[in-house]
Write a structure and sequence with these properties.
The protein is an alpha/beta fold. The chain is built from eleven helices and 14 strands. The model has no long low-confidence stretch (mean pLDDT about 90). The structure holds adenosine-5'-triphosphate and magnesium ion (MG). Adenosine-5'-triphosphate binds next to α1.
């Protein structure tokens, strides 16, 4: 059984001037070396949840354990166990970039020498050596985000919470960030709780996800399991010669949809997919079918179908 880094039990958060629960009976757990993605629309309750996990917001009801420690009653323990990149900007605006990063490392317990070395390595990795001596307050949005991300890594806590880390970043920086997250998971066994709207990017990185809507978790699990269990449409598309004998098509067991003169598709699901492929490869269409393409639903399709349900 893997080690549990985080456990959230029956967590509720009510803000005074919001007439519903911002978090409504949330249950989740994150294991060592796991990258867990939290997805949901604006206002779904993601930041509310992570701020409670990071000890910056008191839950209305429920339990949160980090490394088996009840952190609601021991919030001063939290900084020893996790690092947090918040969604909003930081207060350290008057510092130079290198000072901000090195001080962050030092307050996580690194010696000054070690903090400087780690800062240099991370700055080099992101190819932003020219930012080192700049003052935080006049950096661009994307630059500020990278520096915040680097600071969240300093001292390499075993659990790192990232609230929309890639916002404002250019594609190259995003790529470097995700690659580094995967490497840190693999090499150091670090666990990540990741809030993001970049589902295309997240689906290559996360081990498990939760989709949250109006404060409640709608779906939780491995993306591939969630996709399979939803039984969403899979399209099998292929080409046939334009002068094909129509009888051959009528004999097919499956509902064939003609897209144009030569392109066809069959809509199916995970359960029937293999049977259909067998039928195409060994049946009437054998030898004449070309360019078979299987379009499976992605995490984006699942997300959209879940968050727009009943709207
Ligand atoms: N201090 C507050 N007082 C009252 N309501 C709040 C407060 N903070 C957040 N809310 C409300 O709680 C709900 C959840 O907000 P939260 O910031 O957790 O959403 P989110 O999922 O992080 O959204 P986003 O993707 O836009 O960052 C929203 O409806 C928000 O307006
Ligand atoms: Mg948020």
């Amino acid at each position: 059984m893997s080690l549990e880094v985080l456990k959230v039990e029956n967590l509720f958060k009510k803000y005074e001037n919001l007439n519903r629960y911002a978090n409504n009976d949330i249950n989740l757990e994150i294991f060592q070396g796991e990258i867990f993605g939290l997805l949901g629309k604006n206002g779904a309750g993601k930041t509310t949840l992570v701020r409670q996990i990071c000890g910056l917001l008191l839950p209305t009801k429920g339990k949160i354990y980090i490394d088996n420690i009840d952190i609601i009653n021991n919030s001063s323990e939290i900084p020893y166990h996790l690092a947090y990149l918040s969604q909003s900007l930081y207060p350290h605006r008057a510092l130079k970039v290198k000072e901000f990063i090195v001080y962050t490392g030092m307050y996580r317990g690194l010696s000054k020498e070690k903090a400087i070395k780690q800062m240099e390595n991370l700055i080099k990795y992101f190819k932003i050596e020219d930012l080192k001596d700049r003052i935080m307050y006049n950096l661009s949005g994307g630059e500020t985000r990278i520096i915040g991300f680097i600071a969240s890594l300093m001292g390499f806590r075993k659990f790192i919470v990232l609230d929309e880390p890639t916002n404002d970043m250019d594609p190259e920086k995003r790529f470097l960030l995700w690659e580094l997250v995967k490497t840190l998971k693999k090499q150091l066994g670090i666990s990540f709780l990741l809030v993001t709207h970049n589902i295309y990017e997240a689906q290559d990185v996360v081990d498990r996800i939760a989709i949250i809507k109006d404060g409640e978790i709608l779906k939780k699990g491995r993306p591939s399991d969630i996709i399979r269990n939803l039984d969403m449409n899979i399209s099998v598309k292929f080409e046939l010669p334009y002068n094909i004998d129509q009888h051959k098509l009528e004999n097919l067991k499956y509902n064939l949809i003609k897209i144009d003169d030569t392109n066809y598709k069959i809509d199916t699901n995970e359960r029937e997919l293999n049977l259909i492929l067998e039928n195409i490869f060994n049946g009437e269409l054998k030898n004449i079918v070309r360019n078979i393409n299987i379009e499976k639903p992605t995490l984006v399709d699942v997300y959209l179908s879940e968050v727009t349900k009943n709207e």
